[in-house]
Amino acid sequence: MYQQQKKTLIFVLWVLGYIAFLLSVRRMWTGKYVRNPLARLVFTNMLSENEETETQEGSNLGNSQWYQCSPELLGESVKSLFIQNHLDSGTSAFLKKSIEKSGWIFTQLFQSFVSTIFSPLVSRTSINGLLGRGSMFVFSPEQFQRLLQIHPEWRAERLLDLGAGDGGVTEVMAVHFRKVYVTEVSLPMIWNLQRRNYSVLGIDEWHQTGCKYHVISCLNLLDRCDDPLLLLRNIKRSLVPRTGRLILAVVLPFQPYVEVVGGKWQRPKERLRIKGKLWEDQVTELSNDVFQSLGFEVEAVTRLPYLCEGDMYKDYYVLNDAVFVLKVS
Predict the structure, then answer these.
(1) Rounded distance between C-alpha atoms, residue 12 and residue 10, angstroms
(2) Which end of the chain is more exposed for a tag (fewer CB within 10 A), N or C?
(3) What share of the chain is helix, strand, coil (3-state, %, to 5)?
(4) Which domain of life is it from (predicted)?
(5) In terms of C-beta distances under 8 Å and separation of at least 24 residues, what long-range contacts does 127-134 make, across chains too?
(6) What are φ and ψ of residue 82, in 5° steps?
C-alpha cells in the first residue's frame, strides 16, 4: 500500500512540476516574444490594410511580408501569371480565432501534456487530429475563386484533395463540387474527414480507380512525400482531359522531409532539388524545370501565407507558400 501511495505521489508531483514548467515557458514566450505591444501592432496594421488606414511601416510589415512578390525577378514565362493577394476577411477571421484559442490556458496545458506523453508513439499529425488542434489555412474562399478564375456559384463534378488533414481547407473548396474525395494517412484525421461526409480513398488507390477529377488539390504535400515526381505523374493521369486543373501549394524555400512515427523526420527517397535562394527564383525553377518536364503548364501563381493554429507558445505559425494552378500541356 505504501509503495502504491508513493508512486501516486511521485506522479502527481511530476504532473504539477510539468504544468509549472509550461506556465513559466508560456510567460517567457508570451511576455517577451509573442504578446508584446509591437506584435499586436503588426497584426492590427495588417487588419487595417484593406481599409487603407495603415502607415507605410504597417504596410511593409504586413502585406510585404506575407503576400508581396517582385514580378521583375520572376522568369518571363511566369511574371505575367502572378496574382497579387492581400490579407482579406477570411484570413483575418482565422487569425483571430487562432489568437483566441491560444489564450485558453487550461486547454493548452492539457493538449501540451497529452502531446508530450504520446509523441514518442504517435505522429504529431495524429495527435493534433485526436486533440482537434493545429488546423491549417491556405486560402480564403475569395482567394480560391480568384486563383481558379471562377464565380461564387460555379460548380463542377468532382474534387480530390490529397493529404486533406482535418478537412478545414477542403471545406473552402468543397462548396464548388458535387462530390468530394480525400486522402489522408493519419487515422484520427480520417475520422474527422468522414464526419464531414467526404469520400476517403486509400493513399495507394486514388489514382487506380479510373475516376477522373475536375480539380485535384495537392496543398503542401510535395515536400512531405517520398516520391514527389511520381505523385505529380499520377495526378496528371487522374485529371479530366483539357479542363482538369491541379492546385498545388509548396512551402518555399523548399525543404523536403517526411514525418514518421514518433514525431521524427527523415529525408524523402526521391528529392527535388530546387535552385535559387529567393522565393521568386524557386517559383521560376519549379515552373520551368519541374512542371514543364512533367507536361504541366502554369496558369496562375500567387504568394500566400500557410497558416497553422498556434499553441501556448505562439498565437499562430506561418510559412511562405507558392500556390500554383496547373493544367496539362
Answers:
(1) 6
(2) N
(3) 45, 20, 35
(4) Eukaryota
(5) 127/188, 128/166, 128/188, 129/166, 129/186, 129/187, 129/188, 129/189, 129/191, 129/192, 130/188, 132/166, 133/101, 133/309, 133/311, 134/308, 134/309
(6) -70, 135
Q: Which of 110, 237, 131, 136 is nearest to 188 (CA)?
A: 131
Confidence (pLDDT) at 92: 92
Cβ(88)–Cβ(140) under 8 Å? yes
Taking the model in full, what pTM does it have? Answer: 0.76
Q: What would the pLDDT profile of 254-267 be if each residue is shown by its tens digit?
A: 988 887 655 567 88
Per-domain residue ranges of the chain? 83-328
What would the pLDDT profile of 222-237 be if each residue is shown by its tens digit? 998 889 999 999 999 9
**What pLDDT is stored for residue 40 in this prediction?**
42
CA–CA dist 249, 114 (Å, integer): 31
pLDDT bracket for residue 329 (50, 70, 90): confident
